[in-house]
Amino acid sequence: MTSKQPTTRIRKSPEQVRAAVHQAVVDLLSDPEGEDLNIPAIAQRAGVNHTSVYRRWGSLDTLLADVVTTRLERDSPLNDTGSLRGDLLAWAETSVASIRTPEGRALVRAVILSMPNNPQTQDERAQHFRRRMHSVEQIRQRAAARGENPPPLEQILDQLVAPFYLRAIFGIDPPTTGYPELLVDRLLGNGGSGHAVD
Q1: pLDDT tens for residues 125-142?
Q2: pTM of the predicted protein model
Q3: Which of 19, 33, 163, 198 is a good FRET partner for 146, with 20 to 30 A between their CA atoms?
Q4: What is the C-alpha separation between 149 and 124, in angstroms, rounded?
Q5: What confidence score (pLDDT) does residue 121 get?
Q6: From residue 72, how far is each of 15, 182, 198 by CA, in Å?
Q7: CA-to-CA distance for 177 and 179, rounded, in angstroms?
Q8: In angstroms, rounded to a whole number, what is the distance separating the alpha carbons of residues 168 and 100?
């Protein structure tokens, strides 16, 4: 007679738990036929106890904010292409590639879902925006150091960043070719030439 071996529970480290929960959020948001997004469903998908999720994040809003922030911070600064147009184009191409993926669309959805109207989440949204725009500000600073004349950050937001996210929110894929170039050239042709200052 074979004796039954005791079940061994594999204990996950805090970082393993965090990574598993974050991935579960992205997976659930990316699945168009998935179940409603809530902490018990996320915990089950991640293979952790839902009380651990509540204890660490407290609410779904806070968890979604953490997922978005972590993904944005994971983005490394883009390489210097040597010109303002080249840098903006590289950024735009990366953004287009991102929102074409289920994960990229899921992150946009996570931002929207984590936006109830209270002071804490308003501050979190502001932090997300600053992180997302940090790479764009780096591009502006590099251009200025080269003697180019970059557009104001708000103009880049309105004419380059906003179209990507508007499409992602409504589930409209960017055109398959030429879209980043179109937006960048339109931006630089409207008050941000990118040419060296005389």
Answers
A1: 666 667 667 888 989 999
A2: 0.68
A3: 163
A4: 31
A5: 57
A6: 18, 25, 36
A7: 6
A8: 8
Residue type, 35: E
For tokens 């339109």, name the residue. Answer: 186
Structure tokens at 146: 């080269």
| Residue 160 one-letter amino acid | L
CA 182 to each of CA 10, 89, 116, 125, 179: distance values in angstroms, whole numbers, following the listed order: 51, 10, 34, 28, 5
For 66-92, what is each residue's pLDDT tens digit?
887 777 666 555 778 999 999 999 989
Residue 175, amino acid:
P
Cβ burial of 175 (10 Å; 0-12, 13-18, 19+) is exposed
What does the alpha-carbon distance between residue 174 and residue 195 come to, in Å, rounded to a whole number?
A: 28
3-state SS of the chain is: CCCCCCCCCCCCCHHHHHHHHHHHHHHHHHCCCCCCCCHHHHHHHHCCCHHHHHHHHCCHHHHHHHHHHHHHHHCCCCCCCCCHHHHHHHHHHHHHHHHCCHHHHHHHHHHHHCCCCCHHHHHHHHHHHHHHHHHHHHHHHHHHHCCECCCCHHHHHHHHHHHHHHHHHHCCCCCCCCHHHHHHHHHHCCCCCCCECC
* Residue 125 tokens, joined: 């949204």
∠ CA 117-121-123, nearest 5°, is 115
